[in-house]
Amino acid sequence: MAQPETAAGLSDAVRRGEASALAAVEACLARSAVVQPRLNCFTEIYAEEARAEATRIDALSAAARERLPLCGVPIGIKDFTPLAGKRTTFGSKVHRDHIPEHDPVIVRRLKSAGAIILAHTTTPEFAYSGSTHSPLWGITRNPWDPACTPGGSSGGSGAAVATGSVLLAEGTDMGGSIRIPASLCGVVGLKPSFGRIPMDILRTQYETLAHFGPLARSVEDAALFLSACEGPDDVDALSLPALPPVFPIAEAPRKPRLAVSLDLDMHVVSDEVAGLFHALVADIERAGAEVSWVRTPFSVQAAKDWYDLWAYCFAGDVGHLLDSHRRDLDPGVVQLIERGRCLDAVSLRAIEHRRTALWRSFAPLLREYDALLCPTTAVTAPPADPRLQQGDKILADGRYKSVDMTGHFNLTSACPVLSLPMGLAGNGMPAGVQIVGRRHDDRGVLALGRWIETLRPPRFPPLPA
């Protein structure tokens, strides 16, 4: 029997005894052996441990398997998230020999749900970039075109899920690091509401940009991942109290009221992405949604503020490495640290004032509509080689030219955001649409996502020859 191609399908089949967890692991290992030399999406593959765990799960009683929502599902964990006893480098030469002693909450919950950790996936150094490359692990490539980037910082996770090398992968998102690779690799990516999954891997628990979330092959798989990981834990003082469960996915409204914006009133959007977005919006309207093109409160200032907060995080969290390890660090990391060191307390407080004003301007739009739709990335995948990539810039007409359109929704962090594939552009590359939901309404975002997914069934790249 062929192995199911989704996490939900596989876990159901393994629970019923109709599929083997070990066979699923072997299938993913076989794909990884083909994919890894071409795409470089893994730092380590834990083949023997995965086989042993799969054998253990297959030997469980039917009653024991029934209690495992991710029963036998091979997954990837980003090399920014520690695994006890496994080398976790954060993509950095500085930590090339770092072996954590403890699993974070999200890893413990995934294991308890029956997931099988197959590998660590690549990330840029300290997850700093929207493109996945690092001095330690080199360049990770896009499964649709290896000359292009899979995005970042969860780029290895995106490429691994798109190729079926794993059926689910964990990512982190402080400015789009789940949603960017989801868009550029043609998979599903979810930034849950801030605090929905406890965050305990940073040096501070009072960080308000950072989220854990899944990269997945379907909306149902993303919801299944979230249901296994959500819920409060005292390790994270900002984790949310228990909210209504996200799985099974609720039904979408019969006639959803959707606000739409192509460019968030500031971004330069490529013709390829614009064409996909307009076609999707037309299909959504024909399918019964009430669609309104709206103005949004976003601006170039918001992009600047996100970047300064990002630099502030780097200066505070890894800036101590600059004096002793400058030669080992990615030049982009050095630049962020140096920028962060130039910021003063009054400037940072002013960012928080503007961030508050942004939320207060955006929240009324979300009260009026079920969700806001906009592209995830303004372009399809740029070159994989960082030397060929163009930096963000403000054009003479005041518009902002960048790869992604994601960081605004980390500034307004309470909003859950789901990135779904919109299809393939004329250049043969995928791009995604963001569904931005009301505060803490992860259930509503997933319900809308599953409805839209019926209009754009997932497509995956062929395996490398």
Describe this entry's structure for a reader.
By secondary structure, this protein is α/β, with parallel strands linked by helices. It has a domain at 7-255: Alpha-Beta Complex (Amidase signature (AS) enzymes). Helix content is 36%, strand content 15%. The protein contains 15 helices and 15 strands. It has helices spanning 7-15, 21-39, 47-59, 62-66, 105-112, 155-162, 179-185, 219-229, 271-286, 300-317, 322-325, 331-341, 345-368, 408-411, 442-453; strands spanning 42-45, 74-78, 116-121, 133-134, 138-139, 168-173, 188-191, 211-216, 257-260, 290-293, 371-375, 393-394, 400-401, 417-424, 430-437. Strand 12 (393-394) and strand 13 form a beta hairpin. It is globular, with a radius of gyration of 21 Å. The mean pLDDT is 97.
CATH architecture of the domain at 7-255: Alpha-Beta Complex
Largest sheet: 11 strands, mixed
Number of strands: 15
N to C succession of SSEs: HHEHHEHEEEHEHEEHEHEHHHHEEEHEEH
Q: Which regions have little confidence, pLDDT < 50, spanning 5+ residues? A: none
Integer-rounded radius of gyration: 21 Å
Q: Count up the helices.
A: 15
Oligomer: single chain
CATH homologous superfamily grouping of the domain at 7-255: Amidase signature (AS) domain
* Main β-sheet, spatial strand arrangement: 1-3-2-6-8-7-14-15-11-9-10
Q: Output the structural class.
A: alpha/beta
Measured distance between first and last alpha carbons: 24 Å
**CATH fold assignment of the domain at 7-255:** Amidase signature (AS) enzymes
Which range does the strand content fall in? 5-15%
| The top level CATH class name of the domain at 7-255 | Alpha Beta
Estimate the mean pLDDT confidence: 97
Identify the overall geometry. globular
